[in-house]
Each structure stands twice: as structure tokens, then as C-alpha cells.
TrEMBL record:
Protein name: Transcriptional regulator GcvA
Organism field: Dongia rigui
PROSITE patterns (alphabetical): HTH_LYSR (PS50931)
Keyword field contains Transcription: yes
Coiled coil, from the record: none
Domain HTH lysR-type: 5-62
Family: Belongs to the LysR transcriptional regulatory family.
CDD domains attached to this UniProt entry: PBP2_GcdR_TrpI_HvrB_AmpR_like
UniProt keyword annotations, A-Z: DNA-binding, Transcription, Transcription regulation
């Protein structure tokens, strides 16, 4: 199988054939006239025939050059169209990775307004608890929890990670009145192994809580715990911003007014060098406006 000549030589030939000048071809490609001449000579040696007739002030294609030029020009045109199509497709698809409950309970119900404002941009969602490596994975943006100190990433604070206790009205009717944080220790606390419970009880003034209920549901996301609480299976520690609809509909009731504040927040992140991409700017501006509508002033 024969090998193609060097692409630099083919590119030099295509430009010189199209422009009829080694000098103009060099100017287009950022090379000197001598460099273009050298590349063409390399190509001529490879094909075993002259491709240009050198004249005083210009070059014209030889018979061999005339046969080769249309095919080379078509090949470069097809390459150009292929890369243009790829770029256009990439610019119209926004890939976003987000922590699960933020994505399912907060972001997805609002995404329709983004699609209405930007009908040419499709959003591809990935729900995950892991932190993606933007240098190795094909994501444009991420929504993650943390302190906002990720080198190389632009960060915009979205929501604080606040937690308080919820249960279903049926569950509360079954277990009787709850007036004190200590009353919770006799109830099934969903995912009790999560350290967030200890934070909440410390906030409530109980530094060493000892629940009397046995093992119960352990789950990786607030979405699952919220569904378990609505099903009457126990008391869940949830972020109110993720369950506004359920709270408004009365399917979840805040049991006590104590709210614990985790030392982390939810952040929108993306690589610094991509901050001026149109699709990233569009989503960033839309998302921060949605957060402002929650009554929270985002911080960069």
C-alpha cells in the first residue's frame, strides 16, 4: 500500500495551483515563497513529474499538475466541509454533568425555559456524583458540590447546601407530635449513617445523638430519600430548594425549623479557556438568572 506524500507538500501544491503563485500561496499559508517552492519540489520528486511550469512572474500547471489539481482541491474541500460540520454540531450540543438530585429535582424542571430561549442548542445531561476531568472527557460544564477551589476551572456559586428535616403528613400523623429535636431520636432516620445527620443534630444542640430506631434505608441521593420520606418510611434530611414542588403540594412537611449549613455549596464550573464559547456563555447566563429568581445572589 503506497503512502500519501506529506500533507504540507500537498497543501502547498493546492494553494499554488489555486492562486497561480508561489508567493501568494506562501502568504496564505504563512510560509515563504522559497518554502512553497521546496514543498512543491518534494511533491514533484514523489510523483516523478513536474507539476508546474516556472515562468518569469508566475507559475502555471503542467499537464500532470492539471490532472492532479482538481482531485486535490476536491479533497481539501471535502475536508473543510467535514470539519465545518463537526464544529457546527459541537457548537449546537451542550454537554453537562451534574450531581444527581440537583439535576433531576432543580435543573430539569427549569430546562424548558433555556430550550425556548436557545432552540438551536441541545442539552446532553449526565447525572453523576463523580468529578469529571474536563481535559479528558467531552463535557462543556459541570455542576458539583464543594468549596469552589478547583484549579483551571471558572466557578460560579449557585446554591448553598442547606439541610433540614422532612417527613410525609401521614407519617407525622402516625408518630404523634414532634416539638423538640430529641423527639426525632425515637423515629426511623433515613440514611442515618450520613454524617449530615450529626451536623444537623449539632446545629440543633445535640452533640452526641443516639437514635433508638434500627437500621433503615441507605441511599446515595436526596431524590431517593425524599421519595422514601413521601412514602412514609421515615424522616429524611433534605435540601428544601430541591423539593419546592413537593413542599408546596403538601407531600413533604418540614418537621422542625432547624436548618444545618454544610461547609460546601453547589457550583457551576467549566474550563477557564472555554469561557467565551457561545453555548457556555448562554447556559451560564441563563442558569445564574434562574438562581437569582430563587432569591439567591450568585457569586463568581
Amino acid at each position: 500500500m503506497s503512502k500519501l506524500p506529506p500533507l504540507t507538500a500537498i497543501r502547498a501544491f493546492e494553494a499554488a495551483a489555486r492562486l497561480g503563485s508561489f508567493t501568494q500561496a506562501g502568504a496564505e499559508l504563512g510560509l515563504t515563497q522559497a518554502a512553497i517552492s521546496y514543498q512543491v519540489k518534494q511533491l514533484e520528486d514523489r510523483v516523478g513529474a513536474p507539476l508546474f511550469l516556472r515562468q518569469a512572474r508566475k507559475v502555471v500547471l503542467s499537464e500532470a499538475g492539471k490532472r492532479l489539481a482538481p482531485a486535490v482541491a476536491e479533497a481539501f474541500q471535502r475536508l473543510t466541509l467535514a470539519f465545518d460540520a463537526l464544529k457546527s454540531s459541537d457548537e449546537n450540543v451542550l454537554s453537562l454533568t451534574a450531581v444527581s438530585t440537583f439535576c433531576s429535582n432543580w435543573l430539569v424542571p427549569r430546562l424548558g425555559t433555556f430550550q425556548m430561549a436557545h432552540p438551536d442548542i441541545a442539552v446532553r445531561l449526565d447525572m453523576s456524583t463523580r468529578w469529571v476531568d474536563f481535559a479528558r472527557e467531552e463535557f462543556d460544564l459541570g455542576i458539583r458540590s464543594g468549596r469552589g477551589d478547583w484549579p483551571g476551572l471558572a466557578t460560579h456559586r449557585l446554591l448553598p447546601l442547606e439541610l433540614t428535616v422532612f417527613a410525609s403528613p401521614e407519617f407525622l400523623a402516625r408518630v404523634g407530635p414532634i416539638s423538640d429535636p430529641a423527639d426525632l431520636l425515637r423515629l426511623p432516620l433515613l440514611d442515618w449513617t450520613d454524617n449530615a445527620w450529626r451536623l444537623w443534630f449539632r446545629t440543633a444542640g445535640i452533640p452526641d445523638p443516639q437514635p433508638s430506631s434500627g437500621p433503615n434505608i441507605m441511599a446515595p441521593t436526596q431524590q431517593i430519600l425524599g421519595n422514601a420520606a413521601m412514602a412514609g418510611q421515615g424522616v429524611a434530611l433534605l435540601t428544601p430548594a430541591f423539593f419546592r414542588g413537593e413542599i408546596a403540594a403538601g407531600r413533604l412537611v418540614q418537621v422542625l425549623p432547624v436548618v444545618a449549613r454544610e461547609p460546601v455549596d453547589y457550583w457551576l464550573v467549566y474550563p477557564q479557556e472555554r469561557r467565551n464559547q457561545r453555548k457556555i456563555r448562554a447556559f451560564r447566563d441563563w442558569l445564574l438568572e434562574q438562581v437569582r429568581a430563587e432569591g439567591i445572589a450568585p457569586q463568581s
